[in-house]
Amino acid sequence: MLVLLAGAIAAYLATSGGGTRRAVAWHDISGRVEPAQWARPTISVIRDRHKLEGLFRVATFGRHPTPPQIDFSRREAVLVTTGPRSSTGYALRVESVTEKSGTIDVVVRERTPALGQRVTPRLTYPLLMITLAKSTKHVHVRYAGRS
């Protein structure tokens, strides 16, 4: 019974807020991505060129942009897209990239236009692409919401 209780406590601590969280270095390469249009929101961790090319094959209606060059022997990428938006006032930004207990957490926030903000009304496809140092750790991406 005591062993069972110790196991339950260990499992709880491994999945709860206990432990130290540390910042992880990352690079935003969104500016190196050719204009692309993903019809649906996409969140993808990309660890090889084959997967990157596959994602870019399904992007853009009728035209396939060239994926950015990434050294997959040293880096892995995270792609986040929102799908279509109605103006230039939308954007994605990284809130934080942290590591804890062998998991890397990427928190992304979508910026939405404020009332009265000067934006151009046209169809846009916000995206965010970052790279991280190559790792075997699980990468978890989540939205923090809109601001």
Summarize the structure.
This protein has helices at residues 2-15, 49-58; strands spanning 22-23, 26-28, 42-46, 75-81, 85-87, 91-100, 103-111, 121-124, 127-133, 138-146. The chain is built from 2 helices and 10 strands, in the order H-E-E-E-H-E-E-E-E-E-E-E.
Task: Walk me through the topology.
Layout: H1 2-15, E1 22-23, E2 26-28, E3 42-46, H2 49-58, E4 75-81, E5 85-87, E6 91-100, E7 103-111, E8 121-124, E9 127-133, E10 138-146
Parallel strand pairs: 7-10
Antiparallel strand pairs: 1-6, 2-9, 3-4, 4-9, 5-8, 6-7
How would you sum up this structure, described in words?
The chain has 147 residues and is of the alpha+beta class. It has two helices and ten strands; from the N terminus they run H-E-E-E-H-E-E-E-E-E-E-E. The chain has helices at residues 2-15, 49-58; strands at residues 22-23, 26-28, 42-46, 75-81, 85-87, 91-100, 103-111, 121-124, 127-133, 138-146. It has a four-stranded mixed sheet with strand order 1-6-7-10, with no helix packed on it. It is flat. 17% of the residues are buried. Mean pLDDT is 88; it is low at 2-6 and 10-15.
The helix content, as a percent range, equals: 10-25%
How much is the radius of gyration in Å? 18 Å
Number of domains: 1
Structural class: alpha+beta
Query: Distance between termini?
Result: 48 Å
List segments where confidence is low: pLDDT < 50 over at least 5 consecutive residues.
Answer: 2-6, 10-15
Give the rounded overall mean pLDDT.
Answer: 88
Order of strands across the main sheet: 1-6-7-10
Q: Give me the strand/helix succession.
A: HEEEHEEEEEEE
Number of strands: 10
Shape: flat
Biggest pleated sheet: 4 strands, mixed
What share of the residues does DSSP label as strand, in percent? 35-45%
Task: Please tally the helical runs, counting DSSP H or I stretches of 4 or more residues.
Answer: 2
